[in-house]
Write a structure and sequence with these properties.
By secondary structure, the protein is an alpha+beta fold. Helices cover 39% and strands 28% of the residues. The protein is built from 5 helices and 5 strands. A hairpin with a 2-residue loop joins strand 4 and strand 5. Helix 1 runs antiparallel to helix 2 and helix 2 packs antiparallel against helix 4.
């Protein structure tokens, strides 16, 4: 297993750095372009949640991102040290969306749903020390199931 660590300020301006790093790693691992785009959206949502829920306006807050590549695929861990949100409630809300008019959906709150739709595995670990979102995308989805 190879691991690459990236630490960015908890500010939206730096999320592109995570996406660029992800693209480089996923390219070397031979992911299809569509899979890389899916992963970039999912990791952006995880980082955005870390900025919104974790930073709480403190300028010294950081987001830790860990990319772990294995033969089976890539796992991305996004961790912040801010106050935790309630993952079970958030994940429950992220259950498949009912047949609704998209214009009726409120902005925000779809991040976990998007991550689950775009990645093979999504795990949210919350503790007093912060929240960690673990995203996994397998290289061969059929073999992983």
């Amino acid at each position: 297993m190879n691991a690459i660590r990236l630490q960015i300020p908890a500010h939206a301006d730096y999320i592109d750095m995570v996406r660029i790093c992800l693209f480089g790693i996923a390219s070397k691992m031979n992911y299809a372009y569509e899979e890389m785009e899916d992963m970039k959206v999912a990791v952006s949502e995880a980082c955005n949640n870390a900025v919104i829920h974790g930073a709480q306006g403190a300028s010294e807050d950081l987001i830790d991102v860990l990319f772990e590549s294995k033969d089976s695929g890539l796992t991305i861990k996004v961790k912040n040290s801010g106050p935790s949100f309630l993952p079970p409630a958030a994940i429950e809300k992220a259950a498949p969306l009912p047949e609704v008019d998209i214009s009726g959906l409120k902005v925000g709150g779809l991040g976990i749903y998007l991550m689950q739709a775009l990645m093979d595995e999504v795990e949210v670990n919350a503790s007093e020390s912060g929240t960690e979102v673990v995203l996994t995308k397998y290289l061969d989805t059929e073999a992983a199931r």
